[in-house]
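My current task is to audit a protein record that another person submitted. I need someone to confirm that the token line plausibly describes how this chain folds. Take the sequence as given and treat only the tokens as open to question. This is what I was given:
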Amino acid sequence: MRILNSILPFVALPVIPVMAANNTVKPNIIVIYTDDMGIGDVGFTGGKVIATPNLDKQAAKGKIFTQYYTTAPVSSASRTALTTGMYHIRWNINTYLHTREHNVNCEQSDFLDSKAPTLAKNLKSVGYKTAHIGKWHLGGGRDVDNAPSITQYGFDSYISTWESPNPDPLLTSTDWIWAPTDSVKRWNRTAYFVDKTIAFLNENKGKPCFINLWPDDVHTPWVYDAESESRPDSHFTLENLRPVIPEFDKQLGRLFNYLEMAGMADNTIIVFTSDNGPDPGFNHLRSNNKRGVKNGLYEGGINMPFFITWPAKINAGQTDANSVIASIDLMPTLSKIGGFVGKTDYVLDGEDISKVILTKKTFLRKKDIKWEFGRNKYYNFPKGDDRSLQLATRHKNFKFYTVPDGSKVELYDLKKDPTESKNIAAQHPELVTRLTKKLTDWFRTNDKQLLKKH
């Protein structure tokens, strides 16, 4: 086991030209999975919260997908799906991981089983050097002291936060997610993670690298300097969010610039997206007026900003507004692009979207995306009109919601009604009947059950 701790935070790292990176067949792959960022938080989606020039510039170098979905509206469940290519309920992770008591109440395990298939395992098996840098939240922290090491999921190196089995002491001076006494201050954490990412690429120059870069920005608390740290009442305000996003954008811009100067950019795949919707959403400002927030299945909680760049293979300046893709698709897709041709131990839910990434074709899913969240009384949020029914599916232009016994239904035409304001279930009885059966059967069959091995 090797923890990435070789450099001090915020050091201006030298740029080392890496000529071999352009000659290798396998591309570097960096998945930037930001935390609680709404589709309205970035400029390339038309967001109005604050300017994000570095992210917008990078997005313009590749392909933006406007109908990308996370398959869970909250951290641990969404990270499970992205990591495994499988719906989170198959691995018995239903919401965010917390204390043992919380996990029992939410009917879930304490951590992701290390036997799960992962993108890191696949890529490591075909010669990639692998690193996880940033938030983990797939087990460990609080009173869960028996979670597997991050290395057991296919990572050669890692550095992570308090919500992990082996947190970085520079980020965790107390038994909590963050503290004023942390060596790396709250407002410098993204910079720290970018430093570690650059260091890993430098250390492995000439070798294909896969990196999970999972910042814990832009999750609350929003603390942008020492003065704002002293005002805890401001940590959840829009006033404090506005300086946090530009700093986040600046640090990712530093990574993008490094890749250019080091000669790596052309053969590096960058995926940028968010784990789930925003909280708070400030009257849907952060979701581009779409209904819903974090912890709900309406569009604002699961329709995320997304772009992918790979200058060697993906033409710049593209926007795909028709293909419906999901976080579960990234594991099989990036495994294939990275050269993995074997079979995983379990049947994946995600589909290979490499053709739509590399061409102008519209992706037609073989199976509708499905969601599950909010199974019992312990899921007591969000409140009001942003609180959705437990089950949902995307079928063509329709978004359908129900509950496990099928007693409640909602249907929206997203093409005509992207804010999900008009329930048209009564106008489509045959479709509602068909989708109710499919969705409730899916939940009953797959909750806490893995598909058969190959």
Remarks:
- Residues 24-358 form a domain with the Alkaline Phosphatase, subunit A fold (CATH 3.40.720.10).
